[in-house]
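Incident log, entry 3
Record: UDP-N-acetylmuramoylalanine--D-glutamate ligase (434 residues)
Problem: checksum mismatch between cached and fresh output.
Input:
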Amino acid sequence: MQEKVLILGAGESGVGAARLAKAKGFDVFVSDFGTIPQAQKDVLKAENIPFEEGTHERAPREVKVVVKSPGIPDKAPIVQELRANRAKIYSEIEFAFQYSKAKVIAITGTNGKTTTTKLIHHLLEKSGFNVGLAGNIGISYAKEVLENDYDWYVLEISSFQLDDIETFKPNIALLLNITPDHLDRYAYDIDKYAQSKFRIIENMDKEGTFIYGEDDPQVELQLKKHQIVPWAIGFNHTFFKEDHLAIPFKGNTYTFTDLPLKGPHNVWNMSAAILAALSAGCSSDSIQKALPSFIGEPHRLQEVAVVNKVTFVNDSKATNVEAAFFALQSFDKPIIWIAGGTDKGNDYSMLQDTVQHRVKSLICLGTDNSKLIEAFKEHKPIAETTDVNKAVELAMEMADEDDVILLSPACASFDLFKNYMDRGEQFMNAVHQL
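Fresh output:
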């Protein structure tokens, strides 16, 4: 008799996990409380995997293994019920890991995960590695394990995915930073959020490598609370020397020029990625050859256009305060800042000095801007709108030559947009209409 597996959530990771589970001989059922996209339904139907949507009524309760979408919180009634029945609840990352022999580089942190993940993959691939890319980046790890035979995987890992691991053990783990984000899922307690991030190393042994951000106060605090078993190496802002990076590694210092990314936060991202590539066995020469051809992440400090000598920058992926802070720090010219959206327990105090000295005016793009307005009302002219086209028009009216109009919301996008990509695309469309 086949063992049952329940897949909760039919997004990219859920459908990937369902396909892998079926291939491994499980009796699979997929249950999604929301609406399943037609493309995902088509895949499930083609694989003869039964599913339901809009309810969990048919979801089997007496199962030993559940693979849960990272978007479903632990407080969801179905999850509480399954835990009460002593089901093992895994993330897709944990489930897929159990069926892969490939080595893993895993990247977590509040900011910079996607850029760093893609850069590491680029460096390894250009160095001749047989390497896959998956995880929170929008590519199902389970699907990749099912369909490909890579020697290495580079995985972007969220705290939600780490919450449901048991045996997941990367060969190289990166923890970039820890700043307040998703606190609504962690009882508004940053320590609980930080503990979740540190789970990335909980199964690692002395053969592994742990790369972490030395400049980050929360990382520094948590290092004192954890026994660090793998070999640990930190990176910090001093690695940047005017126009190049000087990366110390195992007794040598390697110099890298022709850097592909701008902004102070990308100094950390590039440093972390290079350390990961060196740890995996890439030569410094192959890394240097690969660096200039890397293209940065869309919606992350992406220059959209220059209109009447005013530069428009799309940083829609900045969905928390620290990401917006680094964006604001990236420009020496006066900034008209477009911010706002769904607040996730934000504390804007760290932005006060930067906003005071760098921002000319603030345009709030959201349904509830009260917290943003309260934070900056003493300093700046502030406008409000729920229309991205109007926000762009207002910004252009406020701008002088050589100003920067920066969309860097510091908030999630779900009040007005499907996601941060939709927000960024609509912003760019509005700019191009000018």
